[in-house]
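Progress against Task 2.4 (sequence-to-structure conversion) is shown through the following example record, which the project officer requested during the mid-term review.
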Amino acid sequence: MSALQKESRAELAARSALSSQRTGFRALLPFLGPAFIAAVAYIDPGNYATNIQSGSEFGYKLLWVVVLANLMAMLIQNMSAKLGIATGKNLPELCRQTFAPWVSMMLWIVSEIAAMATDIAEFLGATLALNLLFGVPLLIATVITGVVTYIILMLDRYGFRPLEIFISALVLLIGGCYGTETMLSRPAWGQVLYHSVVPWVHGSSAILLVVGVIGATVMPHVVYLHSGLTQRRIVPRNDDERKKIYGFSKKEVIIAMSLAGLINLAMMYMSAAAFHATGHSQIATIQSAFRTLTPILGPAAAAVFLTSLLASGVSSSAVGTMAGQVIMQGFVGFKIPVWIRRVVTMLPTVIIVALGINPTETLVLSQVLLSLVLPVPILTLIYFASKPHIMGVLVNRRYVTWTAIACAATIVVLNLLLIYQTLGGTLP
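Structure tokens generated for the chain above:
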């Protein structure tokens, strides 16, 4: 079956849902995909280190931060998906059409830096997983990661559904791995439930981790990407269809982001149960987490942990490349072959590995770069989503806009604190 036939089949299923010929979960099925691709950014290797360190040092006490961060992310990703549905354009395209050329160029440059910083973190995660799981040398593991992600991206030749299904399957694999880790670590469920809703912060170390969890949750590249995934996927023919497509998209965002949130919670409470409860309160790197898991929960738990990390690194690397294409094409109207972009974005990671630079320090630096860029997509997204002449019937209601502004302000302030502490500043 050709790609065009597959696209037509997916669109026919969506049209059946829009005309109410499909009902229930069958109606939602044709619209599942974009949010699951976006959700990959919320369970990428950068989240592993932060969640593991938080759980090992403070036990269950920072679970509420994961819940708060996930609710913020859910709101922002929903707005990004809605922008694509309402306008038929992605966020970078709207920036290029609205702002002066020099502004658009500056936005493109900082967004490209964010995309490359993201790629470094994701590449390093998959590289470390291959190294620890199979003993593959780091440099060779980097090349393998690049080849595998390129092959995944080639699924796009067969239409949007195969790529969506494959990446969604990797998200479900990560979820299954953490379901297994949950059974093996046996967390204290009373503590999990209590600390998921009751805030707690004590001392500058806890503040740093709160900043790290929230500040590094919403990723700039995926805010751009989600609008690109929905902009022409199922094209609405009128305002009524626009509302219905958005209704399905909103449900998908809730499902996908809730799954990502549960995985992040599982990362932290597994660390609390396996490390903090056994006196290992200084687990700050992926390597030390792997080596400590083996004697505590057994080699199976350590292998499952690395399997989830590998799936996370590979899937997020593919998503990062997709985001890079949307950013470049949207801001400057220029597109390059996927393999060239894959090679170019691999180079920084290859250089880092070849020079023997500490991977954990590199991950921290990449998060700082992302923190600097993060306000750009969030603030432009809020600006466009609040304009009736751009969004039409899907314009944000006033309370949604103000809630989004509050979230953006919180994220920006926390990211500034993260940068301040990373550069050596201290909080009282």
